[in-house]
Amino acid sequence: MRTQVAIIGAGPSGLLLGQLLTRAGIDNVILERRSAEYVLSRIRAGVLERGMVDLLHEAGAGERLAKLGLTHDGFTIAFDEASHRIDIAGLTGGKAVTVYGQTEVTADLMDARKRANGVTIYEAEDVTLHDFDGARPRVAFVQDGVAKELSCDFIAGCDGYHGVSRASAPAGVLKEFERVYPFGWLGVLVDTPPAAHELVYASGERGFALCSMRSPTRSRYYVQVPLDETIENWSDDRFFDELRRRVPAGVAANVKSGPSIEKSIAPLRSFVAEPMRFGRLFLAGDAAHIVPPTGAKGLNLAASDVRYLFDALREHYLDRSAAGLDAYSARALARVWKAERFSWWMTGLLHLFPGETPFDRRVRRAEFDYIAQSNHAASAVAENYVGLPY
Ligand code: RFL
Ligand code: PHB
Fold first, then answer.
1. Does residue 286 have its Cβ closer than 6 Å to ligand 1?
2. How confident is the model over 342-359, as pLDDT tens digits?
3. Could you read off the pLDDT of 180-237 as tens digits, one per residue?
């Protein structure tokens, strides 16, 4: 088997890159370890920056998003009894984010790929990467028990944090930067109307909570929990009781409980691997970096990587220029680190840290008060939340 770009992973990064390449006439094959159903069952992100929305349209996968995506031009940060709305539009000259689930993004990209007759091999086992230090890389894998090989010009490693691509980087070249947080997010998806019409990030004595949504009839809620917590300990009733105690009273009164459709715990981590290129292997998305979900940046960083990588590959094939490929890692990392900073900062502001001193807590409160009282401080939050320019 032969293709121009072998893409490892059919998450949002891999599907988006594949779709953009296909539309530009660049041949590609996606190898995904899991089944399509499994990929679609992962409930994750919900907030899209404008750059990602534009990219989905460019990929021919923006039709349902344009119809069903919810435009949000503000969100609320609450700290103990106080509450402040970040007027995203007012502070950024009219910009906004779009609330639309990662599951929907994935489904739309899968549909677009099917319509374009793109090749995705699901349940590809034992994927290994070879010879990407030379001109003829190869990817070996097993399909239905049969060993196969895909030869290609380039490999795009879009296989997430636990994937094989980053692990294939030559020893001694890769630098890793990491911060692990001493808590996780317990998330619940429920078919009841959202408690508020915009997102509410709440910090208090009992820890952090977030009220988000997927549609006017479907809500997504999170509460900060210790790392050793298990979902068996959290009945739906316990979850909603805890959520109501952590959000402002006016919001709590509007939290409508119901049977959870999904419930899971995600640990929080900041991580960056440098560089994002090894010869003809390029990393994109969670394969190269992780952010804690507090700033809603993970999926959006996957999109900005794909923007840079797609432009670089198009330049290579259509303009015969290697400039974009050579600049890819530095260009992507410059944006990645700014989102890492913002996500780390917002996590620090809003979470209760085990062992936190009264001084630490007063400083966090002072930071909140500063944002609530200064347009300059609030503008910095809004500018980052809505997404820094590509
Ligand atoms: P993914 O989605 O992990 O996809 C990688 C794919 O690669 C496959 N794979 C392999 N395939 C072949 N061979 C192998 N050896 C393979 N190993 C792995 C996997 O099966 C998978 O299908 O990475 P990608 O595409 O880079 O996308 C990244 C995003 O999924 C991630 O950044 C976001 O979900 C993060 N995130 C959020 N991001 C936002 O921008 N806004 C948010 O509001 C937001 N909320 C969140 C989040 C992540 C969360 N969790 C659970 C980590 C909320 C949560 C709770
Ligand atoms: C979500 O809706 O899942 C969501 C929203 C905002 C975040 C993180 C997750 O910061």
1. yes
2. 999 999 999 999 999 999
3. 999 999 999 999 999 999 999 999 999 999 999 999 999 999 999 999 999 999 999 9
Rounded Cα distance, 36 and 102, in Å? 14
Ligand 2, atom nearest to 201 Cα: 10
Residue 304 lies in a domain: yes
Whole-number Å distance between alpha carbons of 367 and 349: 7
* C-beta of 49 in contact with ligand 1 (< 6 A): no
Q: Does 57 reside within a domain?
A: no
Token look-up 């010879």 returns 131
pTM value is: 0.97
For residues 344, 350, 351 and 352, what is the CA-based torsion angle, rounded to 10 degrees?
Answer: 130
* 210 lies in some domain: no
Which amino acid appears at position 388 of this protein?
L
Residue with tokens 């998450």: 11
Pocket test of ligand 2: the residue of 104, 189, 210, 346 to mutate, having most ligand atoms within 8 Å of its CB, is 210
Residue 15 Cβ contacting ligand 1 at under 6 Å: no
Residue 299: domain span: 5-44+102-178+269-347
State how beta strands 209-215 and 200-203 pair.
Answer: antiparallel
- Residue 386 tokens read as 């809505």
pLDDT > 90: percent of the chain: 98
Q: Assign residue 326 the CATH number of its domain.
A: 3.50.50.60
Long-range (24+ apart) CB contacts under 8 A made by 135-144 are: 135/280, 137/6, 137/279, 137/280, 137/281, 139/6, 139/8, 139/31, 141/31
Residue 81 lies in a domain: no
Q: How many domains does the chain have?
A: 1
